[in-house]
Amino acid sequence: MNAIIDSTNKIQADFNILKNFHDNYPKLTVKQISEKYNFDILKHVSSSEQITENSFFQVITSENFDLSQVGIKKHVPKTKDFLIFEHRNSLSRKVIRLLSCTHDGCGKVFRKWHNFYDHLRIHTKERPYVCHYPGCKLSFT
Predict the structure, then answer these.
(1) Which one of 16, 62, 73, 127 is CB 3.0 to 4.6 Å from 139, fit for a cystine?
(2) How distant, in Å, are the alpha carbons of 65, 69, 113, 131 from that of 109?
(3) What is the percentage of the chain residues whose pLDDT exceeds 90?
(4) In 3D, which of 115, 49, 123 has the Cα closest to residue 86?
(5) Closest by CA position to 28, among listed 65, 53, 47
(6) CA–CA separation, 106 vs 100, rounded Å?
């Protein structure tokens, strides 16, 4: 039961953290995002999510966002090579979040923060996780 409460509290905390930032970021249509950022949102959403060219997404740039504010207890990559696109369905309140790597020549997109963090560390060459086996000097992203 405590695990469920902890999980619910974490989800609520993540929601509150991101909600506070939303008022400060521009909302652009899918079409505007494609023109401004050369990013095709429709390629990364399913038809069941009912996103069209006229759907609005909040665009959160790396200059205005600190990855450590997400509240994930993992090593936070030291990079500013990313964009976050977020859409909140007003009826279902479901959030569609696309985490885009903008490192030169990359362009990978993720839905989950932990996968995004793991990927960003590839570009920064950060390897914060060290093997604890005696004599082993390997480290991992």
Answers:
(1) 127
(2) 17, 20, 11, 29
(3) 33
(4) 49
(5) 53
(6) 9
Query: Region 97-111: what's the mean pLDDT?
Result: 93
Domain that holds residue 49: 2-140
The number of C-alpha atoms within 13 Å of 90 and in the hemisphere containing its C-beta is 3
36 CB-near residues (< 8 Å, 6+ apart) = 28
What is the number of H-type helices and E-type strands within the chain? 3, 7
- The upper half-sphere exposure of residue 39, i.e. CA atoms within 13 Å in the direction of its Cβ, equals 25
The model carries a pTM of 0.73
Give the number of domains in the chain.
1
Residue carrying the six token digits 């521009």: 26
Helix (H, G, I), strand (E, B) or coil at 125: coil
Question: Amino acid letter at 26?
Answer: P
pLDDT digits (tens, 9 = 90+) for 39-92: 999 999 988 888 999 999 999 888 877 777 777 777 777 778 889 999 987 777
Quick check: helix, strand or coil at residue 113?
Answer: helix
